[in-house]
TrEMBL record:
<keyword id="KW-0732">Signal</keyword>
<feature type="repeat" description="TPR">
    <location>
        <begin position="168"/>
        <end position="201"/>
    </location>
</feature>
<feature type="signal peptide">
    <location>
        <begin position="1"/>
        <end position="26"/>
    </location>
</feature>
<dbReference type="InterPro" id="IPR011990">
    <property type="entry name" value="TPR-like_helical_dom_sf"/>
</dbReference>
<dbReference type="InterPro" id="IPR019734">
    <property type="entry name" value="TPR_rpt"/>
</dbReference>
<dbReference type="Pfam" id="PF13432">
    <property type="entry name" value="TPR_16"/>
</dbReference>
<keyword id="KW-0802">TPR repeat</keyword>
<protein>
    <submittedName>
        <fullName>Tetratricopeptide TPR_2 repeat protein</fullName>
    </submittedName>
</protein>
Length: 230
């Protein structure tokens, strides 16, 4: 039996348990949120192109909504349109200058574009906040690796790993830090643990290479210093 999507059929006027005030008028914020929720589900299922279409429609209905701008930028980044994502996040940041989620995603996009200094600048604006958004510690750890600040990277990544002990990417970054500071046994242990967590195929290939020939993947630059305790 075919199940009808009542929210879409009624123009997002009907939601279980809710009476939406905009039912009698033109599509507004409520319909935008329904579209955004559908876009989020599409993104989770791996259909980033569909997420982009739905997020674009949602933003067209509520063009000043920074949450929708952020969501569309994330989806655009997933399909490789990083420049468009960057421009959209910068627009959102003008409207909401201290929004930690926008700052975080803009830092991620800048890092993906190779703009390490800019990425670190945006991410650093989050540090003084009482609560950090999810993924912030991991991002800062990666930025610190790229900047060569392995002591600070170790602090952020150790905290991230305590919160997410089964995240293979965090363990991979920790392995890189340990390799860079000359803790080769710990580095290898991190890479092995990350591989045992069944990461994505791309990360798994990288981890196998790191276990066999880390110097080929990471180059030289092994240091003898140990990270200071926090």
């Amino acid at each position: 039996m075919k199940v009808l999507n009542l929210a879409r059929i009624s123009g997002a006027c009907f939601l279980p348990g809710l009476l939406v005030a905009s039912c009698a008028g033109a599509p507004g914020p409520s319909s935008s949120r329904v579209l955004s929720a559908e876009a989020h589900q599409a993104l989770l299922s791996g259909d980033a192109a569909k997420a982009v279409r739905l997020d674009q429609e949602a933003l067209a209905r509520s063009p000043d909504d920074v949450v929708l701008m952020n969501n569309l930028a994330v989806a655009l980044g997933r399909i490789g349109k990083k420049r468009k994502a960057e421009a959209l996040l910068q627009q959102a940041l003008v409207k909401s200058p201290e929004n930690p989620r926008i700052l975080l995603n803009l830092a991620r996009i800048e890092l993906a574009l190779g703009k390490i200094g800019s990425a670190y600048g945006y991410a650093s604006r989050i540090v003084s906040r009482d609560h950090w958004p999810g993924g912030f510690r991991t991002l800062m750890g990666k930025l610190d690796i790229d900047r060569g600040d392995y002591q600070e990277a170790h602090i952020y990544l150790h905290e991230a790993q305590e919160r997410h002990p089964e995240n293979p990417l965090i363990l991979t970054y920790l392995g890189i830090v340990h390799y860079r500071i000359g803790e080769l046994a710990d580095s290898r242990k991190n890479f092995q643990s990350a591989l045992a967590l069944h990461p994505s195929p791309a990360l798994a290939r990288t981890l196998r290479s790191l276990l066999v020939h880390p110097e080929r993947v990471l180059g030289g630059g092994v240091r003898g210093e140990r990270p200071k305790s926090k």
